[in-house]
């Protein structure tokens, strides 16, 4: 039944883009998710984090969070929850999570193409011809993903056309925030398309491509890709230079600590806390520590920005919300390692409960 619903072979090509545009049109502001989407200039040039007792307490607090997460992952209660969740997740149709990922990314790229945005609001293409090619490429990938007709072709276009355009025409200092995320999703969708889209299966049979041995790889790709993205954002936008973060916090009252009575907990400490937490979550995702728990926590943080900054945040966050579905549902493929088997070089995962 799910396959029939998400197949959207004909009607989806028309209905889904309309839904995407409605979501965008009813938002209060354009799709913003990262601080660089809000501010491109800083009023805190040369700012740095103070080396004082409050900063030390912030670092110790984040370290305590990391230790508690590591201990909690090894606890008997956590393992029981993981096993029960595995039982529940097996009832979900195979590939459901990748249809959600495709739908989320497809909506984002379709909205981008219609509104003249390239991958992210702070990334611009210059020149009419380049802008046209970028818009058409995004639209093609978006429609392929939304219609669920071909994840393989959509991934190919994303990796061989959209991302190279970004490399050629977007400053590396801006592109670094997004490249790994889109590359990981593109590769994952190519691999899973063979199992979900009849057209992709036919293409791979003609090209004699066999992705059967890579069934677990897409989960690993999006888990590590999301983790690296969070690490880059934490370092690039917060920890290495807090100036943009401070300007962003000046314009958006997200620092709730004074409301709790901590009047001395200024924006600079809040930025430090946010950066360290984001860095820790990214490291946990890359290493496969408590993947489900960490992903749920990450989604809660994203959800809080939707509440604080308005529904326009939804479009910008769609790819991250999308990849959260396979990570929560399947556990991100566990902590992968190589084992000798009858098929040389085959990658296998450790037990799902070990890295859920």
Search tags:
disordered C terminus, 16 helices, 68% helix, two-stranded antiparallel ribbon, disordered N terminus, 356 residues, 2 strands, mainly alpha
Chart the SSEs and their pairings.
Blueprint (H helix, E strand, L loop, with lengths): L1 H6 L3 H15 L9 H4 L14 H22 L1 H14 L6 H20 L12 H20 L3 H19 L2 H4 L3 H18 L1 H10 L9 H23 L3 H9 L15 H21 L3 H19 L3 H18 L5 E3 L8 E3 L7
Antiparallel strand pairs: 1-2
Helix pairs in contact: 2-6, 2-7, 4-14, 6-7, 6-10, 6-16, 7-8, 8-10, 10-11, 10-12, 12-14, 12-16, 14-15, 15-16
Structure description:
The protein is mainly alpha-helical. The protein has one domain. Helices cover 68% and strands 2% of the residues. Strands 1-2 form a two-stranded antiparallel ribbon. A hairpin with an 8-residue loop joins strand 1 and strand 2. The longest helix has 23 residues. The chain is globular, with a radius of gyration of 21 Å. The relative contact order is 0.15. The N terminus and C terminus are likely disordered.
Task: Domain count, please report it.
Answer: 1
Counted beta strands: 2
Main sheet?
2 strands, antiparallel
Global morphology: globular
Along the chain, the helix and strand elements come as HHHHHHHHHHHHHHHHEE
Percent of residues in beta strands = under 5%
Class by helix and strand content? mainly alpha
Instruction: Determine Rg (CA atoms, Å).
Output: 21 Å
Q: Give the fraction of residues assigned to helices.
A: 55-70%
Question: Which regions are unreliable across 5 or more consecutive residues at pLDDT < 50?
Answer: 1-14, 16-33, 336-355
